[in-house]
Amino acid sequence: MIVMDFMEVICKRRAIRKYKRDPIPEEKLEKLYKALSLAPSGNNRQPYKFMFVKDEQTRHEIVRRACHQDFLYDAPVIMVACCEAGRAFDTAIAVDHMVLAATNEGLGTCWVGWFERDAVREILEIDSDLEIPILVPIGYADENPEKKPRKSIRELVKVI
Ligand SMILES: Cc1cc2nc3c(=O)[nH]c(=O)nc-3n(C[C@H](O)[C@H](O)[C@H](O)COP(=O)(O)O)c2cc1C
Question: Which residues are paired to 80 by β-bridges?
Protein backbone atom coordinates (compact mmCIF):
# COMPACT_ATOMS: atom_id res chain seq x y z
CA MET A 1 0.00 0.00 0.00
CA ILE A 2 1.26 3.46 -0.90
CA VAL A 3 0.71 5.93 1.91
CA MET A 4 1.26 9.59 1.20
CA ASP A 5 0.81 12.73 3.17
CA PHE A 6 -2.31 14.51 1.90
CA MET A 7 -0.39 17.51 0.51
CA GLU A 8 1.97 15.08 -1.22
CA VAL A 9 -1.05 13.49 -2.94
CA ILE A 10 -2.23 16.90 -4.15
CA CYS A 11 1.28 17.80 -5.37
CA LYS A 12 1.76 14.45 -7.10
CA ARG A 13 -1.45 14.40 -9.17
CA ARG A 14 -1.03 15.09 -12.87
CA ALA A 15 -3.20 14.87 -15.95
CA ILE A 16 -2.03 11.53 -17.36
CA ARG A 17 -2.29 11.09 -21.12
CA LYS A 18 -0.42 7.79 -21.53
CA TYR A 19 -1.62 4.62 -19.77
CA LYS A 20 -0.46 1.04 -19.34
CA ARG A 21 -3.10 -1.52 -20.20
CA ASP A 22 -2.69 -3.36 -16.90
CA PRO A 23 -6.00 -3.91 -15.10
CA ILE A 24 -6.73 -2.12 -11.84
CA PRO A 25 -7.06 -4.45 -8.81
CA GLU A 26 -10.62 -4.56 -7.45
CA GLU A 27 -9.53 -3.40 -3.97
CA LYS A 28 -8.16 -0.18 -5.46
CA LEU A 29 -11.38 0.44 -7.36
CA GLU A 30 -13.32 -0.11 -4.13
CA LYS A 31 -11.36 2.75 -2.57
CA LEU A 32 -12.29 5.02 -5.46
CA TYR A 33 -15.98 4.10 -5.04
CA LYS A 34 -15.69 4.89 -1.33
CA ALA A 35 -14.04 8.27 -2.02
CA LEU A 36 -16.93 9.15 -4.35
CA SER A 37 -19.48 8.07 -1.78
CA LEU A 38 -17.93 10.15 1.04
CA ALA A 39 -17.95 13.46 -0.86
CA PRO A 40 -20.14 16.30 0.39
CA SER A 41 -23.05 17.61 -1.71
CA GLY A 42 -25.69 20.30 -1.28
CA ASN A 43 -28.33 19.06 1.21
CA ASN A 44 -26.53 15.72 1.04
CA ARG A 45 -28.57 15.11 -2.08
CA GLN A 46 -25.85 13.08 -3.82
CA PRO A 47 -27.37 13.99 -7.18
CA TYR A 48 -25.04 11.83 -9.25
CA LYS A 49 -24.18 8.38 -10.58
CA PHE A 50 -20.76 7.16 -11.65
CA MET A 51 -20.37 4.56 -14.36
CA PHE A 52 -17.10 2.64 -14.35
CA VAL A 53 -16.66 1.31 -17.87
CA LYS A 54 -14.25 -1.62 -17.93
CA ASP A 55 -15.60 -3.46 -20.96
CA GLU A 56 -13.02 -2.91 -23.70
CA GLN A 57 -15.46 -2.79 -26.58
CA THR A 58 -17.62 -0.18 -24.84
CA ARG A 59 -14.59 1.89 -23.83
CA HIS A 60 -13.24 1.90 -27.33
CA GLU A 61 -16.60 2.87 -28.75
CA ILE A 62 -16.72 5.83 -26.34
CA VAL A 63 -13.24 6.95 -27.38
CA ARG A 64 -13.90 6.46 -31.10
CA ARG A 65 -17.33 8.07 -31.25
CA ALA A 66 -17.25 10.61 -28.43
CA CYS A 67 -13.75 11.61 -27.37
CA HIS A 68 -11.36 11.57 -30.32
CA GLN A 69 -8.51 11.70 -27.79
CA ASP A 70 -6.43 8.64 -28.57
CA PHE A 71 -4.66 8.49 -25.21
CA LEU A 72 -7.92 7.21 -23.74
CA TYR A 73 -7.73 3.89 -25.62
CA ASP A 74 -5.30 2.20 -23.24
CA ALA A 75 -6.75 3.20 -19.86
CA PRO A 76 -8.41 0.03 -18.43
CA VAL A 77 -11.29 2.03 -16.91
CA ILE A 78 -13.21 5.10 -18.03
CA MET A 79 -15.34 6.64 -15.32
CA VAL A 80 -18.33 8.54 -16.72
CA ALA A 81 -20.00 10.95 -14.27
CA CYS A 82 -23.74 11.60 -14.66
CA CYS A 83 -25.80 14.01 -12.58
CA GLU A 84 -29.13 15.76 -12.21
CA ALA A 85 -29.42 18.95 -14.27
CA GLY A 86 -27.46 21.85 -12.79
CA ARG A 87 -25.55 19.65 -10.33
CA ALA A 88 -22.17 19.53 -12.04
CA PHE A 89 -20.67 21.47 -9.13
CA ASP A 90 -21.50 18.73 -6.60
CA THR A 91 -20.31 16.16 -9.09
CA ALA A 92 -16.94 17.85 -9.54
CA ILE A 93 -16.36 17.68 -5.77
CA ALA A 94 -17.02 13.93 -5.73
CA VAL A 95 -14.88 13.36 -8.81
CA ASP A 96 -12.01 15.29 -7.24
CA HIS A 97 -12.27 13.06 -4.17
CA MET A 98 -11.94 10.09 -6.51
CA VAL A 99 -9.08 11.57 -8.52
CA LEU A 100 -7.04 12.26 -5.38
CA ALA A 101 -7.84 8.80 -3.98
CA ALA A 102 -6.61 7.35 -7.28
CA THR A 103 -3.35 9.31 -6.97
CA ASN A 104 -2.97 7.93 -3.46
CA GLU A 105 -3.40 4.42 -4.87
CA GLY A 106 -0.64 5.01 -7.44
CA LEU A 107 -3.12 5.40 -10.31
CA GLY A 108 -3.16 8.03 -13.04
CA THR A 109 -6.24 9.97 -14.14
CA CYS A 110 -7.18 12.83 -16.44
CA TRP A 111 -10.25 15.01 -16.25
CA VAL A 112 -11.84 14.97 -19.71
CA GLY A 113 -14.48 17.59 -20.36
CA TRP A 114 -14.17 17.79 -24.12
CA PHE A 115 -16.32 14.99 -25.56
CA GLU A 116 -19.59 14.53 -27.38
CA ARG A 117 -22.26 14.04 -24.72
CA ASP A 118 -24.91 12.68 -27.08
CA ALA A 119 -22.68 9.85 -28.25
CA VAL A 120 -21.78 8.84 -24.65
CA ARG A 121 -25.46 9.03 -23.70
CA GLU A 122 -26.39 6.70 -26.55
CA ILE A 123 -23.60 4.19 -25.94
CA LEU A 124 -24.25 3.92 -22.18
CA GLU A 125 -28.03 4.41 -22.41
CA ILE A 126 -27.96 7.34 -19.99
CA ASP A 127 -31.38 8.91 -19.25
CA SER A 128 -32.07 12.14 -21.10
CA ASP A 129 -32.72 14.00 -17.81
CA LEU A 130 -29.15 13.42 -16.62
CA GLU A 131 -26.16 15.57 -17.57
CA ILE A 132 -22.76 14.08 -18.29
CA PRO A 133 -20.35 16.71 -17.01
CA ILE A 134 -17.06 14.85 -17.08
CA LEU A 135 -15.32 11.58 -17.74
CA VAL A 136 -12.08 10.32 -16.27
CA PRO A 137 -9.79 7.59 -17.62
CA ILE A 138 -8.14 5.64 -14.80
CA GLY A 139 -5.10 3.39 -15.01
CA TYR A 140 -1.40 3.05 -14.33
CA ALA A 141 0.53 5.97 -15.80
CA ASP A 142 2.99 5.24 -18.58
CA GLU A 143 4.49 8.71 -18.40
CA ASN A 144 5.74 11.04 -15.73
CA PRO A 145 4.68 14.56 -16.75
CA GLU A 146 6.36 17.64 -15.35
CA LYS A 147 4.40 19.82 -12.97
CA LYS A 148 2.39 22.41 -14.94
CA PRO A 149 2.88 26.05 -14.08
CA ARG A 150 0.31 27.66 -11.81
CA LYS A 151 -0.56 31.24 -10.95
CA SER A 152 1.25 32.44 -7.86
CA ILE A 153 -0.56 32.18 -4.53
CA ARG A 154 -0.43 35.99 -4.45
CA GLU A 155 -2.49 36.10 -7.67
CA LEU A 156 -4.98 33.51 -6.45
CA VAL A 157 -5.49 34.33 -2.82
CA LYS A 158 -6.50 37.60 -1.21
CA VAL A 159 -6.45 37.72 2.56
CA ILE A 160 -8.57 40.51 3.95
C1 LIG B 1 -12.83 20.39 -16.07
C2 LIG B 1 -11.60 19.88 -16.79
C3 LIG B 1 -11.70 19.46 -18.11
C4 LIG B 1 -10.58 18.94 -18.77
N5 LIG B 1 -10.71 18.44 -20.04
C6 LIG B 1 -9.65 17.87 -20.64
C7 LIG B 1 -9.80 17.22 -21.91
O8 LIG B 1 -10.89 17.18 -22.49
N9 LIG B 1 -8.70 16.64 -22.46
C10 LIG B 1 -7.48 16.65 -21.82
O11 LIG B 1 -6.53 16.09 -22.36
N12 LIG B 1 -7.31 17.25 -20.62
C13 LIG B 1 -8.36 17.84 -20.01
N14 LIG B 1 -8.21 18.41 -18.77
C15 LIG B 1 -6.90 18.36 -18.09
C16 LIG B 1 -6.23 19.75 -18.00
O17 LIG B 1 -5.74 20.11 -19.28
C18 LIG B 1 -5.09 19.67 -16.96
O19 LIG B 1 -5.65 19.34 -15.71
C20 LIG B 1 -4.35 21.00 -16.86
O21 LIG B 1 -3.62 21.25 -18.04
C22 LIG B 1 -3.37 21.04 -15.70
O23 LIG B 1 -2.47 19.95 -15.76
P24 LIG B 1 -2.32 18.96 -14.52
O25 LIG B 1 -3.66 18.34 -14.30
O26 LIG B 1 -1.27 17.94 -14.92
O27 LIG B 1 -1.88 19.77 -13.33
C28 LIG B 1 -9.31 18.92 -18.11
C29 LIG B 1 -9.23 19.36 -16.77
C30 LIG B 1 -10.35 19.82 -16.11
C31 LIG B 1 -10.23 20.20 -14.65
Answer: 51, 135
- Rounded to the nearest angstrom, the distance between the alpha carbon of 160 and the centre of ligand 1 is 31
CATH tag, 26-142: 3.40.109.10
Residue ranges of domains in the chain: 26-142
pLDDT band at 61; cut points 50, 70, 90: very high
**What residues flank ligand 1, with Cβ below 6 Å?**
14-15, 17, 69, 110-114, 145, 148
